[in-house]
Amino acid sequence: PVLSGVPRKQRYPLLRKLETRVVQAGEKLVEQGQQMDALYLIASGLVSVSILDDEGELLQVATLSHGNVVGEISMLLRQPSTADVVAVHPTVLLEMSRERLHKLIRYFPAMLVTLYEMATRRHEETRELSSSESLAPEDEELEVEDCELEAVTLV
Question: Is the pTM of this model over 0.90?
Answer without folding.
Answer: no
